[in-house]
Amino acid sequence: MTSTPLKNGRIGNAIKGKIGVLIEEHFDQTEYRKFNDYFPQQGYEVEYISHLWGNPQLTFGSNPDNGEVEDHVIVTTEVNNINPADYKGIICIGAYAMDRLRYQVAVKKGQKNQAPAVAFLRKSIKTEGLKLGAICHSLWLFCADSDLIKNCKVTCAHNIICDVENAGGDVIYEGDATADLVIDGNLVTAKHPGVVDKFMEAFVQEIEKQEEKKKLNLIRY
Q1: CATH 3.40.50.880 is right for the domain spanning 10-220
Q2: Domain ranges of the chain
Q3: Burial, 161: exposed, middle or buried (Cβ in 10 Å; 0-12, 13-18, 19+)?
């Protein structure tokens, strides 16, 4: 278990606002620990979000990187019940969690993915100024609907390059690897947990640039 104290899937004080993190079983524990440390230090509350399947709460475990599930998080925030505009940013956590969140019970030929987290992502993309983040495997959630990622410049884990490119994403390369970090409009993507520090710093910078722009617009008008 992680030593980081969370209450109802939340940590930190929303001095500057909230950052929502979409999560499910088999999440990346390095990112989880780093998020819980860095974002609250910068003045943001971290709130973990998922589809709870009608339950008041669910507990999710991290990948067993050392042969043991070391981190768990209790989530009480149902993705169907929240408004993206209430957050400064939304992040999809890495590892296999986002593949689980794109699951839909019933499917129809020709119908776009209707999983609650995918529907939430559609709303988030349309929310003006909201920063979105994806790291490692988490672009899998975007790949559930090609409208979410088509023509976007991104980076990702080497394992899912084909998924991202088949969904219309423009993967940026650096030499014989994908780029460490790519920012395209409101979307910030990073290659893998090894660059999570760079990802978090860039994500906060993008949020704060947006907030500064809002202030300037208020002063102007």
Answers
A1: yes
A2: 10-220
A3: middle
Q: Taken in order 96, 98, 104, 109, is the CA torsion positive or negative? A: negative
Task: Name the residue among 170, 183, 172 with its Cα closest to residue 134.
Answer: 183
Q: Tell me the C-alpha distance between 79 and 157, whole Å.
A: 25
Residue in the block written with tokens 């976007």: 152
Amino acid identity of residue 172, one-letter, is: I
Q: Are strands 17-22 and 89-92 parallel, antiparallel or unpaired?
A: parallel
Q: Do the beta carbons of residue 18 and residue 47 sit within 8 Å?
A: yes
Q: Could you tell me where the DSSP H helices lie in the chain?
A: 29-41, 97-101, 116-125, 140-143, 161-166, 196-220
pLDDT by 10s per residue, the chain, length 221 = 344 568 889 999 999 999 999 999 999 999 999 999 999 999 999 999 999 999 999 999 999 988 899 999 999 999 999 999 999 999 999 999 999 999 999 999 999 999 999 999 999 999 999 999 999 999 999 999 999 999 999 999 999 999 999 999 999 999 999 999 999 999 999 999 999 999 999 999 999 999 888 888 766 55
Whether the model pTM is above 0.90: yes
